[in-house]
Design a protein that fits this description.
single chain; 335 residues; 19% strand; Asparaginase_II; 14 helices; alpha+beta; Asparaginase; two-stranded antiparallel ribbon; globular; 8-stranded antiparallel beta sheet
Length: 335
Amino acid sequence: MSAANPVLVEVLRGGIVESRHRGAYAVVDGDGRLAAAAGDIERPVFPRSSMKILQAVPLVESGAADRFACTAAELALACASHNGEEAHVATAAGLLARLGLGEGDLACGAHAPSHGPAAKALAARGEAPCRLHNNCSGKHAGFLTVARHLGAPVAGYEQRRHPVQQAVFEAVAGLAGQAADLPYGIDGCAAPNPALPLHGLALAMARIAAPAGLAPGRAAAVTRLRQAMAAHPFLVAGSGRACTRLMQAARPGTVVKVGAEGVFIAIAPDPGLGFALKIDDGGTRAAEVLIARLLDRFGLIRDDARATVADLLTTPLANWGGTPVGEIRIAPDWT
């Protein structure tokens, strides 16, 4: 893998390159034409949580969101990898309550809040983390909403052949221009995660950015989801997170979403482009710098907000005493 792709991000210490991150990226328009690319963009990768907006398409397209009066905040959370902060937990719990379901119906498992202060507050109250704190609880609440709407069993909704996941895979394949029976692996939250080439993943995001070529119902669904994410950047990730910060600093309507193992996507309705990247070694530190630089390259970081994401464009490194010792930067010869 690493031999095929170029070095895109470097880690410097004392002015000397200490580590290098190889990877690939694709930036495409709604017709699949490349605006920029590097590395092998046809090799299948697991998008992981970067594709949650695609997994949420049936929630809106099926009519489930309207039937159960899903708010824009709940739609944003369905597309989120959240910190497990109070607002995230409360939003997921509220949707489940309207479905007549509870935390125990989520198949995602429990883990501590990703946000340190939220985890400490939970421990201080003597409470154990529950499934609502899982960063994917919003996505799973969305899946359950679709199951209720379809009259399908709640149990097993995360299984590949369940009607919910069949609808998800159909939407993903259609938007990404792929064959319907996509290969898949199981994500950390227990849901199936289809493998896609970066070119196809970027195409799906471009079709959300510029949905005029989609069927009217699907175009309306993806636009509603994108707008919900753009309107609620905090719910998409949370305090201090790169996704939230980049959306807050970007041109209006832009969406940014991380996935595990060094994946990021972005959706830019103006100028109608989709972005997808993968760092070969799974390094999030490199992926954050690369997505920030790609957004900047295409003029998507607002001038008045550049200072707020300067540490993502080039990430400073300090020792334990706080003294600057190096930086994580885009490789000088990246293309």
